[in-house]
Amino acid sequence: MSVLQKNYQIIATAFPPIGEKIKLFWGHQDFTDLMQDLLYNTRGHSRMGFTLDVAAALLELQDLHDRTFPQFKQVSLNARALSHRSTDS
Questions:
Q1: CA geometry: angle at 31 spanning 30 and 32, to 5°?
Q2: 34 touches 21 (CB < 8 A)
Q3: What is the pLDDT of residue 1?
């Protein structure tokens, strides 16, 4: 079983709607956006979080997607700020 299949199965078993989104968004910018939304709390309120196996599977899928589709890799907020600052000069 591939890394993709193994991690997808862990996520889809625990959270079928997230599994469906992963299948739908794989290979697109929407996948990167989904991972950012799932892995980082940007909503300003507490969230329950994922079990360790699901969180690890999400991170591994994010890494695999970044390596397979580098054009969609999420740029860190610090890198964006530096890039924006350098274009303002």
A1: 90
A2: yes
A3: 77
Distance CA 54, CA 64 (A): 15
Average pLDDT of the chain, as a whole number? 84
35: left (phi over 0), alpha (psi -120 to 50) or beta: alpha
| Helix axes 3-14 and 16-25, enclosed angle (nearest 10) | 140
Per the listing, tokens 């989104």 go with 21
Which residue in the block uniquely carries the two structure tokens 């929407």?
A: 30
Phi, psi of 40 (to 5 degrees): -125, 130
Please identify every stretch of the chain with a pLDDT value under 70, giving residue numbers as ranges: 41-43, 75-89
**CA gap 40, 59 in Å, rounded:** 11
